[in-house]
Structures are given as C-alpha cells and as structure tokens.
Amino acid sequence: MRQGTSLAILMIALIPAEITCSLESTMMYAALAKLYALYGDPAQIGWLITAFTLAAAGSAAIGGRLGDMFGRRRMLCILLVLSCVGSLLSASTDDLRVVIAGRILQGMTMAILPLCFGILRENLPLDRTALGVSILGSIFSAMVGIGALLGGLIIDNFEWQMIFRVSAAMGAISLVAALLVVPRSVPAGVPERLDLAGGLLFVPALAATLYGVTEGGRQGWMGLPGLYVAAGVTALIFWARYELRHSHPLLDLRLFRNRQIRLVAIGIFLAAVGPMTSSLIIFPLLQQPEWTGTGFGLSASMAGAIKLPGALASGLFILASGLIMSRVGIRIILLAGTAVTLMGWLGMIFGGHSLWWLVALIIFALTPGAGLVNAIAPQVIVQHAPQERIAEATGLLIVIRTMGNSIGAQIVAICLATRLVSEPGRGQFPAESAYLVASVVIAFLTIGSGIAFSGLAGRKSGVVGSTQPELASVAPRA
User: Which DSSP helix (H) or strand (E) runs through 156?
Assistant: First the structure.
C-alpha cells in the first residue's frame, strides 16, 4: 500500500474506466432487434454478443494477471486503447464481420474491473479499498440499467453505429483520466519461468467450452456444439493439471485452496447459473403477448425502463453495504443479498400475477439482490488473496461468473421450452407453467448459493482483519 493517494482521486479515473466497460457490455443489446431487421441473420447477429463474451472471459483472467506482473496502470491504459480501437472499428462499417472484430477488442475491457480492484488495493488501506470496491460495484450495477436505456435512446434516434462512437468517446476520456490520475504501479515482475503455455492453452480451451454451451441450445448437443464442449472441457482439465504443477503459473489455481476464496467462487457460480440469469425470464415475460395468458405485451423500451429502477436500487444497496461492511462483515451482506433474491423468486412462484407485482419484484428484490451479491463477492478476494495477485484472482471470479451465466442461459432455455402455447400466424411462447419451472430451478440455485456463502468467515475476519495466515496456502511452490 502507498501513502498520499486518496480514494476520491482514484475514483476520478476508475469510475470512467468502469463505465466504459459497462457501456460496451450493455448497449449492444438495445441494437439487436434493429440488426435482426436490417440483416435478417440472427445467427450472425448473435456473434456480436458471443464474440464479446468469449473475449471478455479470456481477458478477465489473463489481463488481470498481466496487470499484476507488468503494472496494473499500464495494463489498464492498454485495454482502454484497445477499447477505443475496437469501438472505432465497429463504428466505421456496415460489414458485420468487421463489427464483430471490433467487438472482440471491446470484450477485452472486461479485465478493467479486476485491474481497478488491484489498483485500489495497491494504493489504499484495506478498509478504504473495501469502500472503493463497493462504489465501483454500485456504479457498475446501476450502469447495467442506464446502459440499456441509453442504448435504446441511441437506436431510436440515430444510426446504430452511434453506440460505438459513444463508447469510443468514453474510452478516450477514461484513458486520459487514467494517465493523469492513477499512480504508476509497482509490477510484481516476470517469474524466472514465464508460464506462456498456461496462457496460450487457457483462452482457446475456455472459448471452446463457452461457445459450445452457448450454441448447444440453438444447434443441438449432438453436433458441433457437443464436440466443442467436450474438447474445451478436456483442454481445461489438462490446463488445470499443468497449472497446478507449474512453479510459477500464469493463473494460480492454488488460490482456491484458500477456503474463503473457494466458497465465494462456488457461491458466485451458483448465483450466475441461477438468479443472475433473471433477465432471460423477466424480459420475455414482460414483452410476451397478452393473448398467451401469461405475458404483459410491453414494448422493449418499456421493459428496459422497468429494469432501470431496479438497477439503480441495486447500486444504492451496494453502496450502503460498503459503508456498513466493517461493522457487519461480508458474509452477512452476501447472505442478505441472497435472501432478498430468494424472496423475489418465491414471489414469482407463489405471488400474484399482475404487472405491478412483477415490477415490484424486479425493483425491490430480483435485480437489487443479485446485483448486491455480484458486486460484493470480490471483497472476499480483495481480503484473502495475496496483494500481488488480486487482479488475477478477481479476474478468475469473473471467468467463473461468465461460465455460470452461459450454463444458466441454457438451463433457462430448457425450462422455458417445457411447455409452449401457440396460435397459427402468431408464434409460440412459453406457457405459465414453463415460467414456473424456471423460477423453481432458480430458487433452488439461489439457496445453494446462500449455503456456500454461509460458510464464509464472520465479522471477526471482516474488512479490517489480517489475512496473513490465509496466504500460506496459496504461496507458489519452490
């Protein structure tokens, strides 16, 4: 930790960087319907999301570790430059292949968040770091709703490439702020045996797995998607064995020998498979035609507007939790977020079926609860991982969440397909019982996530506690 750098000063640079990351991951969704109409190729349009997700998953872990090794400020600036280049590339053309290439560069910005956590821990004491992580988490959560609404406004009033020009401008602002404000990092240095093989194997193995899971629901599991999953999982197992035996691994899986890190990873994975997939149920339910007897027939813009208050409430929940964390501890906050989320899904299962009831659940339970868990979980990593590997460890947590989201999307799709209602010429949609099945599955996954979080250390091991005894279990082998 350094002296002389305040939390407020760091926020001047870290908040714009985080907003850049958030906008690039959310605004694209608002353009999908228009692009379907323009190009008529849902499979190719889907790659605008898939390419970003695959790049984001690889970058979150590798980028964080490279930042730990070569300097987090330097890596942050490199990613912001790539963000600007990718945004400008996508904004410059109507050729979807070029736009997808730009989205790959944009996806690399997902490493920004773990780098920001590492920068906070490098420059601030642990209690101020915890508050900083909460502030970043609250803003990221709020920007999920704001980004979707902003994207919708841009699509309704300008050409669709404008969303990339906005993200390019935000990336440029963030780059200038990072160069002017963030202190130069002290790199951990390159190990004597640089683990190039670990990095080269991890990204394609992860990409093959996520691609197979994503495409399995569309193409079926017996074709290429199943082969991709099998090859990707096999490569990930080989990679894990290799990394565990390496004296200086690029991604140190021995971090998960720490019980606290292992439990929060399990909890986040279950939450990502379950309650963090809520949008895949909420948005179709809000927009599904009323003749089906289940939906409410709202427009996409109105559905996004309903999501916004929940995202803002989530941000307030997260900020408030950061202020009281030193008193109650991370475990209580994570369990509270899980309990709020569970009440929301129980409300979906046993509650009323009016639009206002669903809006209330979205604003006060489903969105804030899951957002709180997602934003506060990295606090465990900040406390218990070695300082020189914080960006790497929080990046791995994002990878775990991304894998969980991909699996959860397929589980929701399977649940919603259990029973359909249709009319000739009007399409087919999930029946009420299908939404019920999906809600029950997510409720059980939420309970599982809470069980994992309940095993975390209590308040005595909270924000201001020493973590030195924990570090011995993750020290590299000689």
Answer: helix 126-157
